[in-house]
Design brief:
The chain is built from 17 helices and five strands. It is mainly α. It has two domains: 208 residues, SecY subunit domain (Preprotein translocase SecY subunit, Orthogonal Bundle); 199 residues, Preprotein translocase SecY subunit (Orthogonal Bundle), CATH 1.10.3370. Helix 14 runs antiparallel to helix 16.
Length: 443
């Protein structure tokens, strides 16, 4: 393994890609600790340290995780990559519903470029909306337990016409930060190693790991810390095993004459992963279940409303109520089947195979092939969806019993993203090495 890294840095082209990627990630992390103009970063930091376990800051804990802790510091990159993720998910869903977007998707590279442009526009719009709502909660003290985000010299302007330019400046800076993050991701994809957006998410999640582990070490006995470490390693090993698992559907192409040349006659396969949906269903379910907590934050946690009491009792992410856990699990399973259904079309795959003379051995081309692919995909998606639900719930249940769940920043979403992005990046580096040395990380 170490020899492979040495060979990677000895290859000039790969070394330049790795150094460029590290340079962009360093700038990205720097922007996550630079506070936005007009923000009392000292007071906010003290408040966050005192109210880590409770309070309205949990409303945006998923976004704060994907921003590497920058959200609760109201930094320049406070929104992180979350607006882009949300925009991408929305565009993927609309591609199935809107005929115009579906036609663009079938146009190839030109259509995909147009959809990417729409994703950028939607990302900026969502960034404006999210930054405005976050600042609105911060200025009233709902986000930081009574502490406003303004420094003392700005307090006389609160509620006056002079406050509007301050708010516009903060929203503009956060939105511009999201635009810069999108640019960073595209730069890494184009000139670096790995998928840029995925690496940015990976970096932000990993950035929270040392502080989370230090909190567990300081607040729990040594045996609890050791047990959590062992359980985490076992969980990561299980995720790696499942993420690599796939069902390979053999495909045979018949020989055909085109002019004087003979084409076809080759054998290949269709790789169907057990976890075909990836981490998207968990993100869907997490985002949806944070809406009740957001409602509680906007209405006030101390409100006497029956709605607030009901949501606090049954849908509090920090309470680990059986109703919340069951709903979370069912949403993950449902979204897994839904996302696989809209991203993999067995009928379209069967038609393409038939068009180019391909067939699955012992299965007739056309409709029987589509039915067979749908049958296999359903059989694979069922354990994949259950696996996603268990992985997402296991850290919440296990860490909740130890009392460390409130301070541990890594749930199923984090583990799935870290393992998936890590495997994908290592595979890309290995492919670069094999092109030049015929030797990758594994000999």
């Amino acid at each position: 393994m170490l020899g492979a890294f040495v060979r990677a840095f000895r290859t000039p082209e790969l070394r330049n890609k790795l150094l460029f990627t590290l340079f962009i990630l360093t700038i990205f992390r720097l922007g996550a600790v630079i506070p936005s103009p007009g923000i009392d970063s000292v007071a906010i930091k003290q408040c966050v340290q005192q109210t880590t376990e409770t309070g309205a800051s949990n409303v945006y804990s998923l976004i704060n995780l994907f921003s590497g802790g920058a959200l609760l510091q109201l930094a320049v990159f406070a929104l992180g990559i979350m607006p882009y993720i949300t925009a991408s998910i929305i565009l993927n869903l609309l591609t199935v519903v809107v005929p115009r977007l579906e036609a663009l998707k079938k146009e190839g590279q030109a259509g995909q470029s147009k959809i990417t442009q729409y994703t950028r526009y939607l990302t900026i719009a969502l960034a404006v909306l999210q930054s405005t709502s976050i600042i609105a909660m911060a200025r009233t003290g709902q986000l930081f337990q009574g502490t406003t985000c303004y420094p003392e010299q700005y307090m006389p302007f609160l509620g006056t016409s002079y406050e509007l330019p301050i708010l516009i400046t903060i929203v503009f800076v956060m939105t511009a930060g999201t635009g810069v993050i999108m640019w960073f991701g595209e730069l890494i994809t184009e000139r670096g190693v790995g998928n840029g957006m995925s690496l940015l998410i990976f970096t932000q999640i990993v950035a929270e790991f040392p502080s989370g582990m230090m909190r567990i070490w300081s607040e729990n006995p040594a045996w609890v810390f050791a047990l959590i470490c062992v359980a985490g390693l076992v969980l990561i090993a299980g995720v790696v095993f499942i993420e690599q698992a796939q069902r390979r559907i053999p495909v045979q192409y018949a020989k055909r004459m085109v002019g004087r040349r003979m084409y076809g006659g080759s054998s290949t396969y269709i790789p169907l992963k057990v976890n075909q949906a990836g981490v998207i269903p968990v993100i869907f379910a997490s985002s949806l279940l944070y809406l009740p907590t957001l409602v509680v934050g906007l209405m006030g946690a101390e409100s006497d409303s029956g709605v607030v009491s009901f949501l606090n009792t049954y849908f509090n992410p920090m309470g680990n109520h059986p109703v919340y856990l069951s709903t979370f699990f069912l949403l993950i399973v449902g979204f897994a089947f839904f996302y696989v259904a809209i991203t993999f079309n067995p009928a379209e795959v069967a038609d393409n195979m038939k068009k180019y003379g391909g067939f699955i051995p012992s299965i007739r081309p056309g409709r029987p092939t589509a039915e067979y692919l749908d049958y296999v995909l359903t059989r694979l998606t069922t354990p994949g969806a259950l696996y996603l639900g268990v992985i997402a719930l296991l850290p919440m249940v296990a860490l909740g019993t130890s009392g460390a769940a409130a301070n541990f920043p890594f749930g199923g979403v984090s583990i799935l993203i870290m393992v998936g992005v890590g495997l994908d990046t290592v595979k890309q580096i290995e492919s670069h090495l094999q092109q030049r040395n015929y030797e990758g990380f594994l000999r």
